[in-house]
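Homework help board

Subject: predicted structure for assignment chain

Our instructor gave us this sequence and asked us to write out the predicted structure in token form, then describe one feature. I got the tokens but I'm not sure how to describe them. Can anyone check?
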Amino acid sequence: MGGDNQKMLDLNHLRLFIEIVKVGSFAGTARRLGVPTNTVTRHIQQLEAAAHMRLMHRSTRKLTLTPAGQALYERCVASVEELSNAAQEIIDDSQTPGGLVRVAAAAGFFDVFGMKHIVEFLALYPRIRVEFLLDDARTDLIAESIDVALRSGRQLKSSSVARRVIETPSVLAASPSYLANNGAPAYPQALAKHQCVVLARDSARTNWTLEGPSGRIEVTVSGRFRANNARTVMQATAAGLGIALLPYSAVRRRARSWTSRRVLAEYRAGTASMYAVFPNRKQSPAQCRYLLTSLSRKCG
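My token output:
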């Protein structure tokens, strides 16, 4: 242990090494940490010099571990993460949160939940920056350096590291123009005679299960317009194409602009849930936890 040529491996270098392995690239790690790529490269060179061995093979397209690098990663990853998490919790408790939060969500996320809550959150935490990547395609959280993805329950995989953060009831709504031209259904079964805008599924037959004063009722509905994402269903409903099941938060916002009205207001179709999905089981950054807490309070 005491030889003159032996060096202690720098914990910060080890932590950076583990981050690079998880992200899969030097550039992605530099982007996530907000430092120049050459800084990341220099630290890894210093780690390899201290270890007296090459840990990574790096090309323009691919980064792979050497056998020594793989062994080092497997031996150190759990201990370094535990130490990092403990240190971060102490820092989080003593400082106002700050830094960047990268969030992946569906393209129509703000059509449903609006921007007001983000404005209020950023005003409350001036040191936090928020970046949303809005896309209906499933995002690779690690490759894109995403801190958290907001996904519906049906999008979750059994292996996902997730927790529920938003709940909002689904309610019936239509545009004033549709109701003026077609009238409003007086009871749930009358929906079968109306044009209904349906969120497309595999089956052409759509059953809506409603809960209300008379208990649970199942109604078979149909319409001339269907779509495979919630944003388009909301747009079609606002355009007067029929009655739809929409998140209450979206209907409430659109009622103020006279583009949406509740139908059969005493009925609803259960609760739609939104989950926070994390790239791994590591403790999420403080700024991410603050954002999720804010969303769960204001968006439900």
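Reply (TA_rk): Your tokens look well-formed. For the description, you could write something like this. The first strand starts at residue 56 and ends at 58. That's the kind of observation they're looking for.
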